[in-house]
Amino acid sequence: MKILVSFVLLCLVSRIQCDLNWWRTANVYQIYPRSFKDSDGDGIGDLNGITQMLPYLKDLGIDAFWMSPIFKSPMKDFGYDISDFRDIQPEYGTMEDFDRLLKTAHELDLRVILDFVPNHSSDEHEWFLKSVAGDPEYKDFYVWHPGKEDPANPQNRLPPSNWLSAFRGSAWKWHETRGEFYLHAFAYQQPDLNYRNEKVVEAMKNILRFWLEKGVDGFRIDAVPNLFEVEPIDGQYPDEVKSGYTDDPEESGYLYHNLTMDLPETVEMVYQWRDVFDEFSMNGNTRIMLTEAYSHIDILMQYYGNGVKNGSHAPFNFYMIMNLNNDSNAIDFHRNIQLWLDKLPSGSVANWVMGNHDQRRIGSRFGTHRIDLINMIIKTLPGISITYNGEEIGMTDVYISWEDSVDPAGCNSNPEIFDKFSRDPARTPFQWDSSTSAGFSVNPKPWLPVSPLYKEVNVKVQQSAPRSHLKIYRRLLQLRRTETLQKGSVETRTHGQNVLSITRRLPGRDTFITVANIGPKRESIDLREVFSGRLIFHIVSVDSKRRDGDVVMGPNLELAPYEAFILRGPVKI
């Protein structure tokens, strides 16, 4: 039997005083505001709905919640196209509603994290309108270029380069009024800001300061790798080379984005933002920066800092999203866990992400039989844990027809392939109970269809069930508050191809061991490989025949397919 073992000593309490600032072991919960809770019956989630449900987050054991964009927007990309960075989208409420949400959250000891979208604005933003008009102050706020002459028609202009948008097609859009092309890494309604203009850099820092002064506890920063593009060579932007990943010339993956993503200047920009965050961090109350980047791990490690400058508190760890799927085994899980832990700079904090508003849901990607298993793995690893709303009850993707699709990533394709790109299936309304629209809204026709499974899969049902995903999730967050999980060492092992164990130890405290059979067959584990003392079943997955509190009889345990549990080794007194 092949055994992979990895051991990380997080903190020797007897010798080192660990800095446990709130964020270092935080349970962060992502809210997609449009789909969380509708308070006024228009079928769209809003700020007052979120405020209404904050006690639910507190009861779960959440430390901080991150809201996807709530700022004023034409909603071409559902808030990621911002027309006013300092105002609230009217569908979601008012600034007074936000202030009330922030006050209520802080009274409940919940921290509030907003979404910062720095790469672009809406094409309806005042800055862009002034840039179009040639206002000297804003002329170069965006990336403009006159384009190339069309050899076949001198009256026509061609895009400056072959660069592609993340939402299909050219990343360049001709603007008739200005008579130039502008760059848009995403939808054409999302023109890229020009970070080679210091006025842009300072303007965006001031946006951060505006909200930090209001008392928000941090930001998740969107699409960081896209901030910079190479500068023109002799006035022309060079083309990117083909990637070989797809034959579809309209798809973003058709090109290798080495000229438009992950440029060195991006990391330096992260360091500059950290300085802004630190202006507002005092008395142990860190304002946290989370950064989104699907980048190579060596680049992500630079985001943390360079030994002289500090950077992101938590560059999102998407490696388990990118590299794991329904066919992955324990060896794959172990490899991706250790990839991050082994690369982690000294003093930095790991983070674990398995789902978000851009990805299909865990229950759909890995199967509903693995929901507890995935949550147990993620929640017993050291550092920050991020949960996308609905993962705690095992929500799954909802099929959204071409006619009902609203996500530009899907709508910019065609009826034959839209489902490959659409993010709508994971953005459907939260399932609170079995009433109209799953308790999300009194409106029977919300902005996206509700899951047909909502009467069986919802918060109310799982709160009253003897055993449920929700109850297991709540217990996992309670477990994360123990000293062992907050300060202890971590050891990950594989036992054959399909069984993974995670052992958390701390001298003088109970030991906790997560055991997960990721595969479809019965497997066995010799517990002597990980622990020599008495063990008790502490938390077991929904379908397990074991019961919490049962004593483990003998060193050899057999696991049913997809079974997972957490064992407790009581400290010897």
From TrEMBL:
Q: Which SUPFAM superfamilies match?
A: (Trans)glycosidases
Gene Ontology molecular function: any one:
alpha-1,4-glucosidase activity
Q: Which Pfam families match?
A: Alpha-amylase (PF00128)
What catalytic activity is recorded?
Hydrolysis of terminal, non-reducing (1->4)-linked alpha-D-glucose residues with release of alpha-D-glucose
Keyword Glycosyltransferase among record annotations = no
Q: Provide the GO biological process annotations.
A: carbohydrate metabolic process
Determine the domain of life of the protein's source. Eukaryota
- UniProt keyword Hydrolase, yes or no: yes
Q: Which UniProt keywords apply?
A: Glycoprotein, Glycosidase, Hydrolase, Signal
Q: What InterPro entries has UniProt attached to this entry?
A: GH, GH13_cat_dom, Glyco_hydro_b, O16G_dom_2
The signal peptide stretch is 1-18
The UniProt record lists the EC number as: 3.2.1.20
The Glycosyl hydrolase family 13 catalytic domain is annotated at: 30-427
Family, per the entry?
A: Belongs to the glycosyl hydrolase 13 family.
Per its record, how is this protein called by name? alpha-glucosidase
Q: What is the lineage of its organism?
A: Eukaryota, Metazoa, Ecdysozoa, Arthropoda, Hexapoda
